[in-house]
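Q: Can someone sanity-check these two? First one:
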Amino acid sequence: MPETGTSSVRVPYGYFIVIACFLIEGCGIGAYVAFSVFFKPLLKDFGWSRATISGASSLAYLLMGLIGIVAGSLNDRFGPRIVMALTGIICGIGYFLLSQIQSSWELYVLYGLLVGTGLSSADVIPLTVTARWFLRRRGMMTGIIKVGTGSGQLVMPLLAGALIMAYGWRAAFVGFGIVVAVVLIGAGQFLRRDPGVKGNVLDGAGAHARMAEGAREDGLSLREAVRTPQFWLFCIITFLVMNCLLTILMHVVPHASDIGLDPIKAAGVVSTVGGVSMLGRLLTGFLIDRIGTRKSMTICFILLIAAFLWLQVAHNAWMLYLFAAVYGVAHGSFFTLISPTVARLFGISSHGVLVGIILFSGNFGGAIGPVLAGYVFDLTNSYQLVFLLLAAVCGVALLLTPLLKPAVQKA
């Protein structure tokens, strides 16, 4: 037999990048979602209102977006490993100190401020690193790492619940914080800002496009990008759509209960959204590489509008679960579209900070939407007008989508 020991198949380092980003997305975003598991223990021990505890969660969500801009900018300048190490340490400290809280202001400082800052890198860093490492398969690889988000939303709350049941909520904060910090820091050390650091070729660009470390990248600077109408247009679209998506996540379970579903079936609606959204992320990643981001976004918005209109007549379990299936695909789709769209519009030279700003515009919309929806419900004692308004908002986003034309010729 011929000697084969001297030959080996070299696995492209980009695949290790995808695995690391998958873990960071799942752990980071899943950790934020898992905070809801601590609600009841905190209510029981301190007697705080739900609004008080929810306020700390909203503060963390806003800071994840705001500090995410800084994290994206630091990644563009210094690379992801330093950013992930710093934010992972901050996150771990925040969770450790949460085990000692005695008052609501401590909850706001430690969870809203420290943990919110620590989780700020969990979305923007994986998205921008993936965009730098992949071109031909950028959509599919982004879809895969965003499946990590859905996986984390399933796994991390279960982990938090198991720790609380076994050791109590104070010790659970410590254990949970250790897990989150280890994953964010550990997986982050596998990341590299540029393919050239590992001697790789940018995916799909050909050998002539080998990325040397420090080489000039195509695309607009932050200053150039913010002077284009496309940048502000995409911020507006993201604000509008995230307004709708977070409203559904917050209010669809109460709506299901209002129309007669028992608690398990009502919770199953949002679980279905989470599960199906993973399919939506993969499907959209596949479509982006074949039909582009703008057509994929159009399909996403049409599905959202159809789902919200369906809610006008969905008055029993199977109709709500059908809504959850259609909406779940679109929900996962939009989160997958953000990073590749930024790369298509503006290139990748300032991709991190641009994604950070656009995600923050979405976080801002996501913080406002559920509050406004609650106000409308209080006035009308129904969600029907809310769902109709959500369809109209997505209709505006759909009309704006054809205007998203690249500000650069190639990314």
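And here is the second, same format, sequence then tokens:
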Amino acid sequence: MNPLVAELTSSAIRDLLALTTAPGMLSLAGGLPAAEAFPVAEIAATTARLLADRPSSVLQYGPTEGDPTLRDWVARYEGGRCGRPIVAERVLITSGSQQALDLIARTLCRPGDVIVVEEPGYLGALQALRAAGARLEPVPVDAEGLDVDQLAARLAAGLRPVAVYTVTTFQNPSGVTLGPTRRRLLAELAERYAFVVIEDDPYAELGFRSAVGPAAEPGARPPVRTFTDTGVTLGSFSKTISPGLRVGWAVLPEVLVAPVTRLKQAADLHSGALGQAVIAELVSDDAWWRAHLERVRAVYAGRAVALAGALAERFGDRLQLNTAHGGMFLWGRFTDGTVPARLLPVALAEGVAFVPGAEFYTGPPDPHTLRLSYATNPPEALQRAADRLARAHATLTCTAGDGRARRSVER
């Protein structure tokens, strides 16, 4: 067996998902989109129309690079985001952005090559990069995203990565967004030190326009690729339309187009033609697409408010939470010494799941952190989840207190 495969560990989130299928379990663990936001009727109608009108194309093998109509749409969309034209030939349609990351990592990386990652960082990316043989070097995230100044200092001291991986907008797990000045500086560092910025941007369209934060137009957050010709941008319809359709994309620098495409051809020949065609039809209706995004944003904004408010009522200043301006996650830190890894089994017994923050660290973790997803459940269920988490916390605190008391008596 390939030793890189043998060394891979299962994602804690995937392991938790197996537990969250239990009847009555409320999961704040996985970043599963709201089923209520799926455009079921539109997908069904579009699928039926495609099967009636052109079954021989949507049920047949397709080009490795992807559906031409969808590639054209992505090129226009990404060109609009960065303010300069993107040719469709630089767009590769993939089976979700996770496949795009895997292909790019395997193209760029030889065993032992350094890739800089965020700390804390997205678990799926850490797995994919390790599978490619990368040696991961963490750089911390703060309130403005990846600490690019610290990265610059480490580069000046001799760090030489082949790539820097970053979730720039509403980061998973912390929810923070890389500031515009840092985006430009990161691009400048990539040019100076000859590394590729792999910008994962699946939450770009999920900025809230509500009480949880200021209006967040995508144009206010230009991709890092705006400032460099060597950057990669990953995108996905999983968070905006449906993860089950498995359609994502990569915008590649010219030098990477051919090798990444060949690797995809070897991996799966092409992504599903029917799913690509359905999404191409949907997003080509600009009025529908804009209205749909507004509905999705409203759903998540309401849920973010509900969970943050419920946790604040029950925990007060014992639990610090980021303010969600978009995306799907709250990042929390207990100030009373609670260790979420110890809280989790008690919480599962109460019927609520979350992910301990330590799972998202490459280096020594902050053991008091946790990630909570508000995306999956409606507000009333999030209130119940907060109740259950509070009961679990009280149980753990009481048990720990009894233990300390017994040890004091024994002394």
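A (reply): Looked at the second one. The radius of gyration is 22 Å. The longest strand covers residues 135-142.
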